[in-house]
Specification:
By secondary structure, the chain is of the alpha/beta class. It is about 45% helix and about 15% strand. The protein binds 4'-deoxy-4'-aminopyridoxal-5'-phosphate and glutamic acid. 4'-deoxy-4'-aminopyridoxal-5'-phosphate binds near residues 38, 99 and 232.
Length: about 400
């Protein structure tokens, strides 16, 4: 029996692959310093958990609208209208998904015909390439320029041909922690508008910002121009396991995505959506985000100071997200380096190869590690780099 060649061509998820290995080691009693998967060690706030319990007790345990419960869609529309001064119709422009990952899948499934191309500036999140392939599209990875990982109109133009249907922008960026500048995003808009291609803007880290300000693509580009926003509750409210996200797009895109939802998952569990509604609309959530950012900022600074003292590694200091993308002085591959780091030094990271082929880099996540553990990590990592690069 043979399996579908469509799925055979899909690469594994680098982050989930590493975290499975680490979990198996931990199960055997091994103590690992975990800077691998992009998760958070903050508990989902109590008021959100309580909202879920109330929703279950109220009987929100049956099928809901495939587009999502109305309260949540209205709340999302209001947040964006307030923040960006744009008109968003909760009925026609918003749909609820099980996380941003499925949102991206549903969007690309909706937008792409077989063999059409998607431009993906790199370094990029591990799953873009795989999702495009699952939708029978062709990912075109574009190496951004210089140490600032810049996107320019000219760079995008060099990679354009008639088969290109969309571009994925991820700001703030995983794995670099960079917020794309207004100039860069304007060039993306100009490039996309001239060629009438979709801009899929993944903004899941929009509230995890330490310096500067996140700029949404929606601030520059209308939904009718092909701007599609993908966002999620995972990071903002420490809700990664809840699987709740959404898409904001023009009516045609939402109508098509709705068919994908109807024919795949029917709907996102309504009690999860209700908890999301409470997360989005309550004051306590703002307090929670503030305190989470405060703690993450401390971790970012501790890691920055520590890494600065390690010879032969370089990185760009992240102004957002909870990642550092670090260039390593190792002659072999990033997978081999990460494997040795794990086996010989009990440190888990994600190899740079998975972020668009950056084989002399690794990604460090500080979302799930305490400051004390970070200090231990820095000492051990310093020793490991010296040992592995000699
Ligand atoms: N986009 C990026 C850039 C991510 O890092 C992630 C992982 N959180 C996702 C999308 C998917 O997020 P979700 O948990 O909402 O599926
Ligand atoms: N997005 C997170 C990461 O980059 C979570 C894992 C995943 O879904 O890829 O590590």
């Amino acid at each position: 029996m043979t399996l579908s060649s469509r799925v055979e061509s899909v690469p594994i998820s680098g982050t989930l692959y590493i975290s499975e290995i680490v979990r198996a080691m931990e199960k055997k009693g091994k103590k690992i310093l975990r800077l691998d998967i992009g998760d958070l060690n903050f508990r989902t706030p109590d008021h959100i958990v309580r909202a879920l319990e109330e929703a279950v007790n109220k009987g929100m345990t049956h099928y809901a609208s495939s587009k999502g419960i109305r309260e949540l869609r209205e709340a999302i529309a209001q947040v964006y209208e307030r923040r960006y001064g744009v008109d968003i119709n909760p009925e026609r422009n918003v749909i609820i998904t099980p996380g941003a990952k499925f949102a991206l899948y549903a969007v690309l499934y909706t937008v792409l015909n077989k063999g059409e191309k998607v431009l993906i500036p790199t370094p990029c999140w591990v799953s873009y390439e795989g999702i495009v392939r699952m939708c029978e599209g062709i990912p075109v990875l574009i190496k951004t320029e210089g140490e600032e990982y810049c996107i320019t109109y000219d760079l995008l133009t060099k990679h354009y041909d008639e088969e290109v249907k969309a571009i994925i922008i991820n700001t703030p960026n995983n794995p670099t922690g960079k917020i794309y500048t207004l100039k860069e995003l304007r060039e993306v808009k100009e490039f996309a508008n001239e060629r009438r291609i979709f801009v899929i803007s993944d903004e899941v880290y929009d509230s995890i910002v330490f310096d500067g300000e996140h700029i949404s693509m929606l601030d520059l580009m209308g939904l009718d121009e092909g701007c599609i926003i993908v966002n999620s509750f995972s990071k903002k409210y420490a809700m990664t396991g809840w699987r709740l996200g959404y898409i904001i797009a023009n009516e045609d895109v939402i109508r098509s995505v709705n068919k994908v939802i109807q024919q795949s998952i029917s709907c996102v569990p309504p009690f999860i959506q209700w908890a999301g509604y409470v997360a989005l609309t309550s004051e306590e959530s703002q307090e929670f985000i503030k305190s989470m950012i405060k703690e993450l900022r401390v971790r970012r600074d501790v890691l920055d100071n520590g890494l600065r003292g390690i010879m032969n590694i370089t990185y760009r200091r992240p102004e957002a997200t909870f990642y550092f993308f670090v260039r390593i002085p190792y002659k072999g591959s990033s997978v081999e380096f990460s494997k040795r780091l794990l086996e010989e030094h009990s440190i888990a990271v994600v190899p740079g190869k998975f972020f668009g082929g950056y084989d002399n880099y690794i990604r460090l996540s500080f979302g799930s590690i305490t400051v004390d553990e970070l200090r231990i990590f820095i000492d051990k990592f310093k020793e490991a780099v010296r040992h592995l690069s000699s």
